[in-house]
Design goal:
By secondary structure, the protein is of the alpha+beta class. It has helices spanning about 5-25, 25-40, 50-55, 70-75, 130-135, 160-165, 175-180, 185-195, 200-210, 220-230, 235-245, 250, 270-285, 295-300, 305-310, 325-335, 340-355, 370-380, 380-390, 400-420, 435-440, 445-460, 465-480; strands at about 45, 60-65, 85, 95-100, 100-105, 145, 150-155, 170, 200, 310, 320.
């Protein structure tokens, strides 16, 4: 008897594991399969759902394809699904919810593209093979037939399992055709590298290099959605590498490849690009719980201001003065172009702006006032700032690394000690607006705002004050004429 090869053995084990996973969903799959079979229709679990079942990472989203038309799918789901939606019906998709599962059922399609946008002219197909060959990658072109009585049959006409076993991303059709149909698939390739740890097939990489400029056809919103998925992957630095090596990053996020600064024999500095990838990996190691999108973006972008601030110094050194200020501005500009929310832009840019401030701390040389300002300026981002600053230590000098860790430990201890005495999370003036107006005898207006700001600065400098002391300081400031705005 011939023993199975390692790949054959792994294939068998993965398929067996996927079968067990899917049988655990029999409460959903069995009645759904029986409904379609009774109506004379085929039903297949397909795409990422099959891939993730094989990899042991199936979530609560289930994608299906069928020969039934959308109206027929709606009728078959009626009375069984908890809810259903027709928001994707123009693309042949009906969505539904059953128990804790989110379900999408799409009619077989053989789409046509205009070569200008990524929006297909939806054309219904007549077979599973036609539907699978239009998909982005072969690992997403596997299917499982869902029959009556819980019957399952694995279907893989395009070698998706071979690609999965090899950890390779390849396209069902020629990559040039696939990417011309939908250029977003090029960015999805980098995203799947990040999520799955796979590599690109040589022909896929070559096609992306040749066609990278076609990503310009894709809207900023869709690009930023894919970038977020990439950043949140298990191997984001590998995904970013793919973007930079193929030229995609030059089109959608040029600030990252720009960090690959030339290093000459006379002016030495750390490679900013590789340093940033290391900071990203170290920030991920410091995460607690779910992946932190804000922290990860701040980690990869924290030094993007360095290329614009690089100066060669006498003696062979290199400086990047105020790169955190320039970098924060660059973050805001790029993330606005990618249509990120105002809150996301504010959070990431503020972390970039603040990430270098700790290096002025020295060996506890900051006053309590400086510590309060550090906490206040970071505000709700302080836990993320702690992680970013710690991740930014990539020196190979063990003694220096230990000294930096100890210094930051000391800063965090000081923050904790001061927080025991004061509410550092909400540093506010000792007098509110009403008290200011009453004390100074002024109406609501800009003068009140200036007085409030003065009291907040006083609070940061001196900590909480007795009311009488705060009132005396405010009166002295006001009577000096400083609060009139003149």
């Amino acid at each position: 008897m011939v023993s199975p090869t390692p790949d054959e053995d792994r294939r068998a084990r993965l398929l067996a594991s996927a079968s067990v996973t899917l049988r655990g969903l029999s409460d959903v799959l069995t009645p759904l399969g029986e409904r379609f079979a009774a109506a004379g229709h085929e039903l297949y679990l397909v795409g990422g759902s099959v891939r993730d079942a094989v990899l042991g990472r199936l979530g609560t989203d289930l994608d299906f394809t069928t020969d039934a038309r959308p109206e027929q799918v709606q009728a078959l789901l009626k009375g069984w699904a908890d809810n259903q939606w027709d928001t994707g019906i123009a693309f042949g998709t009906i969505s539904a919810a059953k128990d804790e599962q989110q379900i999408e059922i799409t009619t077989f399609r053989t789409d046509a593209y205009d070569g200008v946008t990524r929006n297909p002219e939806v054309q219904y197909g007549t077979s599973l093979d036609e539907d699978l060959v239009r998909r982005d990658f072969t690992v997403n072109a596997m299917a499982v037939r869902i029959g009556p009585g819980g019957e399952q049959e694995f279907v893989d006409p395009l070698g998706g399992m071979d690609a999965l076993l090899a950890g390779v991303l390849d396209t069902p059709a020629a990559p040039e055709i696939s990417f011309n149909d939908d250029p977003l698939r090029m960015l999805r390739a980098a995203r799947f590298v990040s999520q799955l740890g796979f590599t690109l097939a040589p022909r896929v990489r070559e096609a992306i290099v040749a066609m990278a400029d076609q990503i310009d056809r894709i809207t900023a919103e869709r690009v930023h959605t894919e970038l977020d998925k990439l950043i949140l992957g298990e191997y984001p630095s590998e995904g970013i590498d793919v973007m930079c090596e193929t030229g995609l990053a030059d089109r959608v996020l040029p600030e990252i490849p720009a960090m690959r600064l030339e290093i000459d024999e006379h002016h030495q500095h750390k490679d900013v690009y590789e340093h940033s990838l290391t900071v990203l990996r170290q920030a991920i190691d410091l995460e607690e719980g779910d992946p932190d999108l804000v922290l990860r973006w701040a980690a990869i972008l924290h030094d993007i201001g360095k290329p614009d601030t690089k100066r060669n110094e006498p003696g062979g050194g290199v400086s990047f003065h105020h790169h955190e200020v320039v970098g924060a501005k660059m973050v805001r500009k790029r993330m606005r172009a990618l249509k990120y929310s105002k809150q996301m832009i504010e959070d990431v840019s503020r972390l970039v702006f603040l990430h270098l401030r700790f290096h002025g701390y020295g060996d506890g040389a900051w006053t309590d006032s400086a510590v309060r300002r550090y906490v206040t300026d970071a505000d709700e981002l302080l836990p993320r700032l702690h992680k970013l600053v710690r991740a930014d230590c990539t020196t190979r000098n063990k003694r220096r690394a230990a000294r930096l860790r100890a210094t930051y430990d000391d800063l965090e201890s000081r923050i904790a000690r001061i927080a025991e005495q004061e509410d550092l999370a909400r540093v506010r003036p000792d007098l509110d607006g009403n008290a200011i107006m009453q004390l100074l005898g002024i109406p609501a207006g800009p003068d009140v705002g200036r007085a409030w700001t003065f009291l907040k600065e006083l609070r940061l400098d001196r900590g909480p004050l007795p009311r009488e002391e705060a009132e005396a300081a405010l009166l002295e400031w006001w009577n000096s004429g400083a609060g009139t705005g003149n």
